[in-house]
Amino acid sequence: MLDLDLLHSFVSVVDAGGFTAAGERVHRSQSTVSQQIRKLEESLDCALFVREGRQVSLTEDGERLLGYARRMLALSTEVREAVSGRKRVDVIRLGIPDDFAADTLTAVVSAFARSHPDVRLSVRCDLTAALTRGLERGDLDVALVKREPGAGRALAAWPENLHWIASPALDLAASGPVPLVAFPQGCIYRNRAIHALEAAGKHWRIAYESPNLLGLQAALAGGLGVALLEKRCIGPGHRVIDAALPAVPPTELALCVIDTASAPVRRLAGAIQEFCEEETTRLAA
C-alpha cells in the first residue's frame, strides 16, 4: 500500500521545485521531507529524483509516478468529501500557451470562474512542449497546444498561418545570417523557422531567445531580428516580410481535453473553443 502522506510530499517537491520549498508547503522541515522521499523510493524500489545541489528533477520512474500520485490524492480528497457530506470543489487545471495568455482569453477564463463559484481554476501559462507533457502526466485537464496538423486527438483544432515578422528598421540584407528572435528550443514555430531557412540554403543565428511573447515582441520592435509567429502576435512596430524569406506550412492550434474530463472541464473547454472560433474568424478577416 502506498502512503498518501508520502505521495503528498512527493508531489509537493515536484510542484515547489525542491525539498526546502516543499517543506514550507507541507509545514515540515527539509530533512523530514527528504526522509519521506527516501522512504517512498525504498517502498517502490526505484529513484524518483535526480539531485543536483539544491536542484531536483524527476527520473523516468518519477515521471511515471507523478500522474498516478496526483490522481490518488485527488481521489482521496473526493472520498473524504463524499463520506463527510462536505460540498465538493472541482479543480480544473488549464494550460495556455504564452502567446494566448492575453487579455481576451483571460477575460473568458475569468468569466467562467465567476459563473462557477464551486470550481477552483489553476491556470498554467507555458510553452507547448511543457503543456503537452502536463496533459500526458495527468497534471492538466485541458490545454491549448500548438502542434503539427492532425497530430493526435483534440476536441477542436484550427490552422495557424505563420508569418515572418520584423521591424521596419531592420535591414535583413545587411544582417548576415538571418537573426532569429525565437521561443526556446522545442517550440514548433522555432523548428519551422530553422527548417525553412536551412531547406532554402540560408544561414541563420539565434539573436534573441525568450519563453515570453512580450520579450520577443520587444526584440522585434527594437530591430534585433526576425521571428516566425502567428498573425495574432503581430504588434505595434512590426511588419510582415514573408516575401523576403521562405514560405512556411501552417501549424495547428489544438484544444485537448483529458478522457476523464468532468462536466465543469467540458464547459470550460466549450467556452475556450467558442473563443478560438471567434479569434480564427477575426484573424481571417
Automatic annotation (TrEMBL):
The keyword Transcription applies. Coiled coil: none annotated. Residues 2-59 form the HTH lysR-type domain. One of its GO terms (molecular function) is DNA binding. Gene3D superfamilies: Periplasmic binding protein-like II (3.40.190.10), Winged helix-like DNA-binding domain superfamily/Winged helix DNA-binding domain (1.10.10.10). Keywords: DNA-binding, Transcription, Transcription regulation. Belongs to the LysR transcriptional regulatory family. This is LysR family transcriptional regulator. The lineage of its organism: Bacteria, Pseudomonadati, Pseudomonadota, Betaproteobacteria, Burkholderiales.
